[in-house]
Amino acid sequence: MRGEELAFEVGGSMVVVTVREFDPSKDTEGVEAVERICEVGPSGKLSLFTDLHGDPICRVRNSPTFLMLVAEIGQETVGMIRGCIKIVTCGKKLHRHRKNTSEPASKQVPVYTKLAYILGLRVSPNHRRMGIGFKLVQRLEEWFRENGAEYAYMATEKDNVASVKLFTDKCGYSKFRTPSILVNPVFAHSLTPSSNVTIIQLPPNDAEFLYRTKFATTEFFPRDVDSVLNNHLTLGTFLAVPRGSYSPDTWPGSPRFLADPPPSWGLLSVWNCKDVFTLQVMGASRVKKAIAKTTRLLDRAFPWLRLPSIPNFFRPFGFHFLYGLGGEGPRAQKMVRALCAFAHNLAKDSGCQVVATEVSGQEPLRCAIPHWKMLSCEEDLWCIKRLGEDYSDGAVGDWTKSPPGFSIFVDPREF
Fold first, then answer.
1. Same-domain check for residues 149 and 165
2. 291 and 334 inside one domain
3. Mind listing the pLDDT tens digit for each residue in 51-93?
4. What CATH number should be reported for the domain holding residue 83?
């Protein structure tokens, strides 16, 4: 993508801003400097700093197609934006052509579309209100259209007024979904899953079959889910079933499992964000740090009490992301609780401080996911914009105007 120059008048003089594709050989240091400024902010308030481990495109690198743009004035990086494109389920339709008489007459099948995602928009505080953010979004949308994307969406905190106004007022996006980011600390002690639940790690091919059979019509389900499950950052897919129904030694494979499933079961996959980037809470007072440290000391001194302690968020920490949560049956919530306890212990053994997930605000299994309210975002905001006129896999109407479903599939490659 060729660079584009923009001229702005600042303080009576003209300033030229160049927007071009990110060049890792010369832009990494400048991008990381802007990340630090934007995350911490000049006020010194409590905020979250992201350490990208020297790889500014790490959060989109595993996506099928991605691009990063930078904005610079002279030799100074003043802004950047990242984007990626994938094919996802945007709806479902009834398929009335049966291959054999054993299939239902009206089977629901997914309708896919090519979707673009915007993330990591940053503009240096000293260069805001110059239209740089708007131009970065415009240039990225041009690339989306050139690559056949039919929709673009972005995620932001609901109370991030500046970001919401930029996208909804200036860029033509509309408010779309309000999922919840649920975050739970990893304690110094292990958790004990229910003894009435057996947890089985599935081979990737079994996990793919189960997801495609049971979750393919879930909104935002990626058509290349096999790439996600086989990615080296996926630590595994885990199935919870009632004790005595199946075990790792008697696992028959997903096709036979679905032909005769137990009354209830739960499923989730674990993505290792720790090896991609780390987080750190900045700007905390000495009092807050002392209180957090005290909870950890008490937990170590009296481990049998199993006190909930606050991990050390004030130095870089890693986390695991849980995706593909689902289940069926009257005891599905119990199965998910057992899986979350298992995932907590997996994170503990990996040296992580946090386990996180993102689910629809209407997710039926949400109440089974342990989380601390003070660490979580109860209502995130996704905004969407239609870039094209037709779906790539059959029309079901304008996705931007569709009502939310009970569940969404959050792709861990872009969390």
1. yes
2. yes
3. 888 999 999 999 999 999 999 998 899 999 999 999 999 988 8
4. 3.40.630.30
244 with 165, same domain: the answer is no
Rounded Cα–Cα distance for residues 267 and 327 (Å): 6
Q: Residue 115 has what pLDDT?
A: 97
3-state secondary structure of 139: helix
User: Is there a single domain that holds both residue 262 and residue 347?
Assistant: yes
Q: Are 386 and 145 in contact (CB under 8 A)?
A: no
Cβ of 66: how many Cβ atoms within 10 Å? 19
Closest CA to 280 of 40, 15, 13, 10: 40
Determine the residue type at 125: P
357 within 8 A of 407, measured Cβ to Cβ: no
371 shares a domain with 325: yes
Residues spanned by the domain of 192: 183-375
Element (H, E) at 337: helix 332-349
348 and 408 together in one domain: no
pLDDT value of residue 77: 95
Distance, CA of 59 to CA of 52 (rounded, Å): 8
pLDDT at 276: 93
Q: Two tokens at 135?
A: 């131009």
Whether residues 114 and 255 fall in one domain:
no
Q: Phi and psi dihedrals of 76, rounded to 5?
A: -100, 125
Residue 338 to residue 266: CA distance in whole angstroms: 9
Q: Is 95 exposed, middle or buried (0-12, 13-18, 19+ CB in 10 A)?
A: middle
- Sites in the chain below the pLDDT cut of 70: 1-13, 39-46, 95-106, 390-396
- pTM for the full predicted model: 0.91
Query: What is the pLDDT, as a whole number, of residue 129?
Result: 86
pLDDT score for 6 = 66
Q: Are residues 18 and 149 in the same domain?
A: yes
